[in-house]
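sorry for the late reply, my laptop died twice this morning and i had to redo everyting from scratch. anyway the thing you sent over, i finally got around to it. pasting the sequence first so we're on the same page, its 54 residues, then the predicted structure underneath. double check i copied it right bc i was rushing
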Amino acid sequence: MDDKQKPNGIVLTEAQQKSRRQRSVAIALALGVLVMLFFAVTLVKGPAVLVRPM
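ok and here's the structure:
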């Protein structure tokens, strides 16, 4: 077998890899902001979050 085989699948260009990294970072930041927003709302509401009329 030859050690220099072509990789299987899709090979991305440098520009596509950079675009993918930027998109991944943007998604991670958006998810982090959403988590912090939910955390802040929970802190502001306090224990009353669990007290609801049935």
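The two ends are 70 Å apart (CA to CA).
thats about all i looked at so far, will dig more tmrw
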